[in-house]
Amino acid sequence: MKMRTREVKTNACRRKTHNTHLAQFSRVTNVRRKNKFYGFWFFLGGETVLFASLFATYLALKDKVLPGQKVAAEIFDLPLVFVATMLLLTSSLTSVYAMHHMKNYNFRGMVAWLFITVALGAAFLGLEVYEFYHYVHAYGHTFTSSAFGSAFYALVGTHGLHVAFGLLWITTLLIRNRKRGLSLYNAPKFYVASLYWHFIDVVWVFIFTVVYLMGLVG
Fold it and tell me: In the Cβ-directed half-sphere of 157, how many Cα atoms lie within 13 Å?
């Protein structure tokens, strides 16, 4: 009887210790997850400052061209830029669908919508590269041709690099987790990548308005 009582106490003590370790692990995991989100928001704050500086530079230099050079209204191909804009905005919507499936624990649905997001983002990037190629060869509008050219390519090109980084980020997550499914470890990573993609889309809306629409009006 005493041996049985001692065994029961020992098992209860083990369960208590196990539960304590689980609680400590859960607290540590939550703290690490929160720290990652805080770090991501600080990162986006730095990115916002970067793009604000590039926008300010562009607005100061957008009319600085040499005599005989074409201005923005004579160069920009608005239909092409509009198509690229629709592709990027649609990719933001597909990433929302992906996160909806993630919250419903539908890993395959999330992966499918993220692949569509990547495809749309890649199409946008391809149109942007073609746009730069067209401006350079048709109008001689290069990074060093004028202050306007330097400011334009610095702003729009930096955004293009961010799009490429976002595509690489999402693609890497998809490849690394293709056999793992969703878990508490990788779900926040997909969510943060989706937030970053939305940030890129918001920046492009400002670029489309400030650079292209105002450029054609001005």
Answer: 11
Whether 62 contacts 72, CB under 8 Å: yes
Residues with Cβ within 8 Å of residue 94, at least 6 apart in sequence: 113, 114, 116, 117, 120
Q: For residue 216, how many other CB atoms are within 10 A of its CB?
A: 14
Helices (H) and strands (E) in the chain, counts: 7, 0
Q: Confirm if 200 and 162 have CB atoms less than 8 A apart.
A: yes
Question: Quick one: tokens of 212?
Answer: 């292209």
Check the CA dihedral 86-159-59-143 and report its sign.
negative
pTM, two decimals, is: 0.83
Reading the chain (218 residues) residue by residue, the pLDDT tens digits are: 545 555 444 545 555 554 454 344 345 445 455 666 778 888 899 999 999 999 999 999 998 988 888 888 899 999 999 999 999 999 999 999 999 999 998 999 999 999 999 999 999 999 999 999 999 999 999 999 999 999 999 999 999 999 999 999 999 999 999 888 888 788 889 999 999 999 999 999 999 999 999 988 76
By CB atoms closer than 10 A (0-12, 13-18, 19+), residue 91 is buried
For 208, which DSSP code? I
Contact 92, 201 (CB under 8 A): yes
Name the residue among 51, 207, 57, 213 with its Cα closest to residue 147: 57
